[in-house]
Amino acid sequence: MPESKGRPKPAYTPPRTAQSKVAKPNPRWFVPVMLGLMLIGLVWVVTYYISGSHGYPVPQIGRWNLAAGFAFMMAGFLMTTRWR
């Protein structure tokens, strides 16, 4: 049995997409704020541990000073995920 001729297929052209968003660099203040938050948190926690029973930097909140220090550090670390 003879084979039939195939029809020519048009070349594949991918569908048009919207222009992809170009990642813009971070503003100049981003890295100093990021590092500052991490350092403030570190100093906060170290100050709490060194002060012992006095409970500095904020004596009224007691052990919550640890949470405050770690919150500062976590905010700095979360900023590193957006750093370009």
UniProtKB/TrEMBL annotation:
Chief location category: membrane
Spans through the membrane: 29-50, 62-80
GO biological process terms, semicolon-separated: cell division
GO annotations of cellular component type: plasma membrane
Family under the similarity heading: Belongs to the CrgA family.
Membrane topology type: Multi-pass membrane protein
The protein's name in its UniProt record: Cell division protein CrgA
Entry keyword Transmembrane helix: yes
Function: Involved in cell division.
Keywords: Cell cycle, Cell division, Cell membrane, Membrane, Transmembrane, Transmembrane helix
Region ranges (Disordered): 1-22
Subcellular localization: Cell membrane
